[in-house]
Amino acid sequence: MQNNIILLVSEVMKKNVTNVISLTQIKELKNKIFDYFVEGALLVSNDENQLIGILTDGDVRKSLLLNSESSIEEYITLRPKTILAADRASVALRILREEEINLLPVVDNSNKIIGLITVHMLLKIFSPERLYLTGYEDKMDENEQRHLARYKFALNFIKNDAITLDCACGSGYGSKLLASKSKKVLGIDLSIDAIVFAKKNNSLQNIEYEQGNIDYLKFEYSSLDNIVSIETLEHVPNDVFLRFLDNINLWLKDGGVFIGSSPMLRYKDNQPYITNPFHINEMPKNEFIDSINLKLQNFEIHFYYQDQDTFLPLCKENTGFCIVVARKGKV
After folding, report:
1. H/E element holding 187?
2. Can you state the angle between helices 238-251 and 285-295, rounded to 10 degrees?
């Protein structure tokens, strides 16, 4: 993190900027204009590539609804916030947070566009363990695909048209997926940056995002239909993990479903081998399974392991990533 603080914008920014359009082109393109957007924004320049303003995709849709060629220009935000390539990346992140925007144009001293920097790019650096996905990515790396696959797997088990707790929700990409089958999704995360990003990029009418600590959540007895906890349990102390399991037993309705995940502790030369320094509670497979079985005794429980985007019943020889699916029975 200390090295990240001195990073310059020029070391992080995207240099080959594709979402730039001249005023002349705007009228010619009309509906095709959406092909130019990046992070929901379009940089507007003059013929010398000097920045004039910014258009959002929402602004363009409004103008097209008016069916007026000239109206698009009226929606351009003139003199937007910008940053220089020699500025600190941490300053760019502060501006994006304060202004509640997703993107900053990077300009030179003559206001010519030389790049862009997004909150998505910066949070990957300053919060490397957390994924900031919006669902509009052109492509995802293998790690991002594996994370998304876990939520897609969970979607197979949650009760339809029900109340779902996603804890911790991170940047909200999983909550948005769970919302497709839920009446309401409650997305909770400790990180304020993650919650702000989720509200701005992964909001739907049936999702509520809130900052909160997993160890201090309060829900009424038998008030939740589904509890999903992906990429969370390995990040909290073991005592917090065990108390969370107790609460799951209290919060879930009869027939409610808990889907949780954790990497299984691996060994190298007979020594514990943790590859991720952010994982403070990686448990051996047997310890994780025993904890679940002990705390969720009135549940029908199944354990799976992940092989890329495939999930198979957990066997003795399996190591890697474990997902538990537990359905609460009637007392």
Report:
1. strand 184-189
2. 30
Cα separation of 164 and 258, whole Å? 10
Over range 47-51, report the average pLDDT: 90
* pLDDT at residue 199 is higher than 90: yes
Average pLDDT over residues 76-101: 85
Q: What is the pLDDT of residue 172?
A: 95
Instruction: State pTM to two decimals.
Output: 0.69
For residue 105, give the nearest of 48, 61, 41 by alpha carbon.
41
Stretch 303-320: mean pLDDT: 84
Distance CA 129, CA 35 (A): 31
Which residue type is seen at 189?
A: D
DSSP, residue by residue, 115-154: EEEEHHHHHHHHSTTS----S--S---HHHHHHHHHHHHH
Q: What is the Cα–Cα distance from 34 to 48, expressed in whole angstroms? A: 22
- Other C-beta atoms closer than 10 Å to the C-beta of 6 total 10
In residues, how long is the chain?
331
- Domains of the chain are 2-126 (3.10.580.10), 142-328 (3.40.50.150)
